[in-house]
Sequence to fold (235 residues):
Amino acid sequence: MRLYEECLKALEELTEGSACRRLRQDVPWPDGGKNQLLFRNDTAFELGSGALPAMSGLFITQSPDSVPDDEVLLYGPDIDELGHDSPYARIALVRVRKDAAQSEESTYRLMRKLEYARYHVNPLGFMLRISSLSCRESARIGREALKNGLNLGAVGHMFLEEYHKHPEVEAVKLIFITDPAFPYDRAAELIRRGEDITKTLDHLRQKVKMDCTVCGLKDICAEVEELCKEDFPKG
Fold:
């Protein structure tokens, strides 16, 4: 599958040279439930608050070279090292089975299904705040959770468990970024590029007739269509 390979390569270039660590995933953490609510008085600080960068993205691949195994990576300080509001990005690279994405239809549905998985991830004391239209994602960190040792390794493990509930998923590389010096503007462009590819798949699967002079996807539509011909020759 070549659809998102350009994004994967761009992400690799973006993170190259930045300090990174692999987080432990074996620390159990309780689930806060889907109705978890943290008020300001219960909050120690926020990841991606106010005007700070706050984003999430998801890309799929079928290449073991891109995503060999499950892992949770962190660029920047962990929750217990912060103690104050911080920029935040979470990017999931998901390796799926070879037979999982064989058409525009199945690839689009798989992408949306995997994106929706984050609504089922509710670590106790970690309240996600999501805006799917703007690809914005931030999180409130509870005072009690911080005191009890909440970290992004535990959060990442719960994300991985949720992704693996889908039989199409073989491995996940989950990247958290809190480094204030990271080029979040370039990361945001990359995430928007991936979302535009997914939206274009929706147009192609529905065979939507659009006025190309006003369509916001016209710059990548022909490119995605050519990639689809290579990825889905039977389509």
